[in-house]
Design brief:
- The structure is a single chain.
- The protein is mostly helical.
- It has one domain: Tetratricopeptide repeat domain (Serine Threonine Protein Phosphatase 5, Tetratricopeptide repeat, Alpha Horseshoe), CATH 1.25.40.
- The chain contains six helices and no strands.
- Helix 1 (3-14) packs antiparallel against helix 2 (18-31) and helix 4 (52-67) packs antiparallel against helix 5 (74-93).
């Protein structure tokens, strides 16, 4: 996904057009299912839509795909940190404090 596409999808998220953002990310996912940035976007939208299990699945996939990249750039490393942070927040809200703590540590 190119930078312009990222900006477009982020704009949809920020404007609370989550259903449209979800459709756009799902389309992008069908074209590039191994792209960790797309998986993070999907996870974020699912989180905002309170689809927690879907969010967890996509955030974990973000991390797995990113860790497979041999030379990740700064943007990808930041995305991984954000994925861990979002997982930590979810786990904290679920009362899974040890898991939240573990994810917060990985986010930093």
């Amino acid at each position: 996904m190119d930078a312009l596409g990222d900006v477009f999808l982020l704009d949809l998220e920020l404007k609370n057009k989550l259903p449209e953002a979800l459709k756009a990310y799902e389309k992008a996912d069908s074209l590039e299912p191994d792209n960790p940035l797309i998986q993070f976007g999907l996870g974020s939208v699912y989180l905002h839509l309170n689809q927690i299990e879907n969010a967890i699945e996509k955030l974990k996939l973000t991390i797995r795909l990113a860790e497979a990249v041999k030379k990740p750039d700064d943007a990808l490393l930041q995305t991984v940190a954000r994925a861990y942070n979002n997982l930590a927040i979810i786990r904290f809200e679920q009362g899974k404090l040890e898991l939240a703590k573990k994810n917060f540590k990985r986010a930093s």
